[in-house]
Inverse folding.
């Protein structure tokens, strides 16, 4: 894998076969919140909404090459809304995969907290994005901060009761202008709750109303700068390479394989995993053409234009 990536970046063309080591599978493309910088929350996803069935998921795992070791059970949508979410985790663990996911925390009651620990999930990201309801709801529209806090408490308690180190709990805070003053309060809250890790993350914005006004004033947490046309662009210059394109893949709820999590609408569809295995699709003509462009003219790939990993 690393040799293929290294040679490809040197000669500016895809060389040798590649096999993904990590994948993201979308259990559901529907969410209960209306976050204004999320395509799902904005209601602007162009592809069909849906939910992967448990039999489909089981079949999908059979098509994954043996080199895959990590599964992120998340793409668009809220994973805990999937009716068989814990069954999906169990199936993935039986396939000897390290499993992670992310949640907005609105479904983390005591019952689901206990099931989460019992499922042997390896890591879980919980979105906070505010320490008061007023600030929290400016981004997590329709969400209740108290559910996130109480749900996190339930998870920590369940871990203690079940004597488990897992999942590793990460409290995530997207830094915007409206919540940047709460960073210290968030760190204290996360520590008080018994969280394992804290992630202060730069926020991504789209062409939504008032997007520019949401951007943080803290340069450390800002992805963007203004170009000569006074439009927002990711800081830095394009690298014309991306390790993720060689090491990982994203699979939508209906089985389409796309290059990464920035392809929200699955515009770069390399093939369907129910029709061919992951390795074959990742080395298909469509995939090779995408990688070729990535290595030579990455700035012309629209999904790279809002990705901080594309810049140096």
């Amino acid at each position: 894998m690393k040799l293929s990536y290294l040679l490809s970046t040197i000669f500016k063309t895809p060389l040798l076969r590649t096999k993904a080591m990590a994948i993201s599978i979308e259990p559901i493309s529907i969410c209960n919140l209306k976050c204004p910088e999320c395509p799902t929350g904005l209601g602007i996803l162009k592809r069909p909404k849906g939910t992967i069935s448990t039999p489909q998921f089981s079949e999908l795992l059979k098509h994954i090459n043996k080199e895959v070791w990590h599964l992120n059970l998340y793409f668009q949508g809220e994973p805990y809304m999937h009716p068989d979410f814990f069954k999906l985790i169990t199936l993935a663990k039986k396939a000897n995969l390290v499993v992670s996911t992310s949640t907005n925390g609105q479904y983390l009651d005591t019952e689901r907290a206990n099931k989460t620990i019992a499922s042997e999930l390896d890591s879980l990201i919980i979105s906070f994005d505010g320490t008061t309801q007023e600030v929290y709801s400016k981004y997590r529209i329709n969400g209740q901060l108290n559910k996130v806090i109480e749900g996190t408490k339930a998870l920590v308690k369940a871990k203690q009761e079940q004597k488990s180190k897992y999942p590793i709990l990460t409290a995530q805070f997207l830094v915007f202008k409206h919540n940047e003053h709460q960073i210290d309060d968030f760190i204290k809250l996360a520590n008080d709750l018994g969280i394992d890790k804290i992630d202060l993350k730069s926020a991504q914005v789209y062409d939504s109303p008032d997007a520019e006004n949401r951007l943080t004033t803290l340069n450390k947490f800002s992805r963007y700068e203004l170009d000569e046309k006074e439009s927002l662009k990711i800081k830095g210059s394009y690298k014309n390479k991306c390790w993720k394109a060689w090491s990982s893949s994203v699979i939508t709820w209906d089985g389409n394989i796309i290059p990464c999590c920035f392809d929200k609408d699955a515009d770069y569809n390399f093939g369907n995993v129910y029709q061919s295995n992951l390795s074959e699709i990742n080395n298909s003509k469509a995939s090779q053409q995408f990688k070729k462009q990535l290595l030579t003219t990455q700035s012309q790939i629209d999904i790279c234009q809002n990705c901080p990993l594309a810049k140096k």
